[in-house]
């Protein structure tokens, strides 16, 4: 039978061995790798309808998978003002002024990527921006997406005029007189203002999402672990999939929060396995804390502002019971845990669930920004995946620890930043991702950051924690084999093996031999998902 796709004259990269396979070509049929061999034998499998591509020595890797991203959120934010390159308040004001000029009267200004380091020693508030905004309702999301700055007009429209109590750890920050400063901490407070802003319709959001996913495919991504299913995001994925416009394979984990309750947990369990050809609901995302930058992480000792002392889940034992119920039902969990106390509690909870109901469910911890030595080995002992985003470290912290994250933690804990290598050496399965839109989704940038640990905007600056850098082979494993291990799919995806899914990334140069500082600029020549070409570089004949 003729095959669907044949790739010739390729360097087939094996992340496990760390080198090229002996074969130089492969054939794809019905979404799977049908055969590996030399050019002559693979060409013989081609028929009149087969797509045959001569790669002229380009590198083929197993499809690159982002272990943590938010496509729908990112697609919506991407149509707002990007503040991520603003280094100080003057930069922010200039950007806001430029975005404000063309706005129609009464229109909202949405921005994202605001770095708290831009405030220097000033407290985070709307005060530095009120003059330039001049009555415009504005919602400025900070880079961590766990906090925002709302303008005075936005607060007024939303009816937010003082502090409020929330079921989860969340806060409308107020001054000594009880007036909101504009700083909104965590989801519930942000939603109190954000829901007052007009939102685009389904069709517009669908088009934005489709464009973002196409761009991800062009960057070399073949899949992603989606850490939310909020609003109508599942309907968006289903609509794109049904139309044949979904260019990535998505594994979606809806949220479970303190307010979810027993009935909500039951609904999450019932939802497992639903999906389409290229997406499915598989797992649940939980939160154990917030972020270091806004003082809502859960640390074993307070930060230097006296903050980050509470869990996001007001009753940590209720979280433990939720994990136990999900584990008993065979549902894998992925828990946002940034601080050392949060990470420890997640590991304890999973360990208790396994002790009661046995192993076999693959749980994860997301982010793991700072952990002490005695926590490292527990990931392997308990069997919990470490899902990490190295570009958060490289792009939002500094080697000299003068950034907001490091100053809050102090020297000892800042020196334990994103311990990718230590966790790997301790036997953990380390999965790499971007957390887009928190950081750029381009997978080559993530692989590069994991290796050089330098800020992507200026590679001449010193690395933060160079001893935690991963080798080229380990970084590639973190976006190919290890995502498959984390999801229990290592027998059918993640390697260039006969029978495995034909999810492939084709690069102009070998990611295992390209210097880390040059890797992010390597052209992506072709991306293949389920045997279907989702991106092809115009220069590829």
**Low-pLDDT ranges:** none
**Domains (count):** 2
Mean of all residue-level pLDDT scores: 95
Which CATH architecture of the largest domain is right?
A: Alpha-Beta Barrel
* Helicity, as a percent range: 25-40%
* Cα distance spanning the termini: 25 Å
CATH superfamily of the largest domain: Metal-dependent hydrolases
Structural class: alpha/beta
Find the count of extended strands (DSSP E, 2+ residues): 26
The DSSP helix count reads 21
Give the strand order, joined by hyphens, for the main sheet. Answer: 3-2-7-24-25-26
**Main beta sheet strand tally, sense and closure:** 6 strands, mixed
Outline: globular
**Percentage of residues in DSSP E strands:** 15-25%
What is the CATH topology classification name of the largest domain? Answer: TIM Barrel
Reading off the top of the CATH hierarchy, the class of the largest domain is best stated as Alpha Beta
Gyration radius from CA atoms, angstroms = 23 Å
Top keywords for this entry?
541 residues, alpha/beta, Diaminopimelate Epimerase, Chain A, domain 1, TIM Barrel, six-stranded mixed beta sheet, 21 helices, 32% helix, 22% strand, globular, YtcJ-like
Descriptive overview:
With 541 residues, this protein is α/β, with parallel strands linked by helices. The protein has two domains: 116 residues, Diaminopimelate Epimerase, Chain A, domain 1 (Roll), CATH 3.10.310; 290 residues, TIM Barrel. It is built from 21 helices and 26 strands. A six-stranded mixed sheet has the order 3-2-7-24-25-26, with helices on one face. A six-stranded mixed sheet has the order 9-10-11-12-14-13, sandwiched between helices. Helix 11 links the parallel strand 20 and strand 21. The longest helix has 18 residues. The model has no long low-confidence stretch (mean pLDDT 95). This is Amidohydrolase 3 domain-containing protein.
């Amino acid at each position: 039978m003729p095959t669907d796709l044949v790739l010739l004259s390729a360097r087939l990269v094996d992340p496990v061995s760390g080198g090229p396979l002996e074969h130089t070509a492969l054939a794809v049929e019905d979404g799977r790798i049908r055969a590996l061999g030399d050019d002559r034998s693979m060409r013989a499998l081609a028929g009149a309808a087969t797509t045959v591509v001569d790669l002229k020595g380009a590198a083929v890797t197993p499809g690159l998978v982002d272990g943590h991203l938010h496509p729908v959120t990112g697609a919506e934010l991407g149509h707002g003002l990007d503040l991520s390159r603003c280094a100080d308040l003057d930069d922010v004001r200039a950007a806001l002024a430029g975005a404000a000029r063309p706005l129609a009267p009464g229109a909202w200004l949405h921005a994202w990527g605001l770095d708290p380091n831009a405030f220097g020693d000033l407290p985070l508030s709307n005060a530095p921006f009120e003059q330039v905004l001049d009555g415009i309702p504005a919602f400025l999301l900070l880079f961590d997406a766990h906090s925002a700055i709302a303008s005075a007009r936005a607060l007024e429209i939303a009816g937010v005029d003082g502090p409020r109590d929330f079921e989860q750890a969340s806060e409308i920050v107020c001054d000594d007189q009880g007036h909101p400063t504009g700083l909104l901490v965590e989801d519930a407070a942000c939603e109190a203002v954000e829901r007052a802003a007009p939102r685009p319709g389904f069709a517009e959001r669908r088009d934005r999402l489709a464009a973002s996913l196409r761009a991800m495919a062009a960057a070399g991504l073949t899949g992603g672990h989606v850490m939310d299913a909020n609003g109508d995001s599942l309907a968006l994925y289903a609509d794109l999939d049904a139309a044949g416009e979904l260019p990535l394979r998505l594994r979606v984990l809806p949220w479970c929060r303190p307010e979810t309750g027993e009935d909500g947990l039951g609904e999450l369990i019932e939802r497992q396995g639903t999906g389409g050809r290229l997406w499915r609901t598989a797992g649940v995302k939980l939160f154990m804390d917030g972020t270091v930058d806004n003082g809502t992480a859960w640390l074993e000792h307070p930060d230097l502002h006296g903050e980050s002392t509470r869990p996001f889940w007001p009753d940590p034992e209720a979280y433990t019971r939720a994990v136990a119920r999900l584990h008993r039902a065979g549902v894998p969990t992925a828990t946002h845990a940034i601080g050392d106390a949060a990470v420890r509690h997640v590991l304890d909870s999973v360990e208790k669930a396994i002790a009661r109901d046995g192993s076999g469910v693959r749980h994860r911890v997301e982010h793991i920004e700072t952990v002490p030595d005695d926590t490292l080995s527990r990931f392997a002992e308990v069997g919990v995946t470490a899902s990490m985003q190295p570009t958060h470290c490289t792009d939002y912290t500094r080697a000299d620890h003068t950034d907001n994250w490091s100053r809050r933690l102090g020297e000892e804990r800042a020196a334990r930043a994103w311990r990718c290598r230590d966790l790997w050496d301790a036997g953990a399965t380390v999965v790499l991702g971007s957390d887009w839109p928190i950081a750029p989704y381009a997978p080559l940038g993530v692989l590069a950051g994991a290796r050089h640990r330098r800020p992507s905007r200026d590679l001449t600056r010193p690395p933060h924690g160079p001893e935690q850098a991963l080798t080229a082979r380990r970084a590639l494993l973190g976006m190919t084999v290890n995502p498959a291990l984390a999801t229990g799919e290592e027998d059918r995806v993640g390697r260039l093996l006969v029978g495995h899914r034909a999810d492939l990334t084709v690069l102009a140069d070998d990611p295992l031999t390209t210097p880390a500082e040059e890797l992010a600029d390597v052209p992506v020549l072709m991306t293949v998902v389920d045997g279907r070409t989702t991106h092809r570089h115009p220069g590829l004949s």
